[in-house]
Write a structure and sequence with these properties.
Layout (H helix, E strand, L loop, with lengths): L6 E2 L6 H12 L4 E2 L1 H18 L4 H4 L4 H11 L4 H8 L3 H15 L4 H10 L10
Parallel strand pairs: 1-2
Helix pairs in contact: 4-6, 4-7, 5-6
């Protein structure tokens, strides 16, 4: 993901899921295969703990509401799911995600997930 991958699927992914994944990535979102998400998140948490957290100054650039959205992105929620959790419209959720990406200078949702874990906003097994 740090090298720029926008998604990760296992080799036995069903064709329908593969097509959906291509569309998701084409639309600018990121996608991780559910069967590997926990392993990746656990590894990111271990790496984050071993190397230390990103500077809090980076997260100081976002509002508290944006932190809340970032946590939900870190949990793997899409814009519609974030909207449902926060009682906002999907377009408002998308706007929040876009602003977070701009403020934190990341290019996609996969990098937001990494940042959410590295900063300690999200940890494996946590849920808002």
């Amino acid at each position: 993901m740090r090298a720029g991958a926008a998604g990760f699927l296992v080799k036995d992914t069903e064709p329908e899921e593969l097509l959906r994944a291509v569309r998701v990535v084409h639309d600018g979102d990121a996608l991780l295969s559910p069967s590997v998400t926990r392993r990746i998140m656990a590894q990111l948490a271990v790496q984050s703990y071993a190397t230390g957290k990103p500077s809090d100054a980076a997260l100081d650039r976002i509002t508290e509401r944006e932190r809340e959205v970032l946590r939900l992105v870190g949990e793997g929620l899409n814009n519609a799911e974030i909207a449902g959790r926060l009682f906002i419209t999907p377009l408002t959720a998308k706007t929040h995600v876009s602003r977070i990406m701009t403020k934190l200078q990341v290019r996609d949702r996969a990098q937001l997930v990494v940042l959410a874990y590295e900063s300690g906003l999200v940890r494996p097994g946590w849920s808002i």
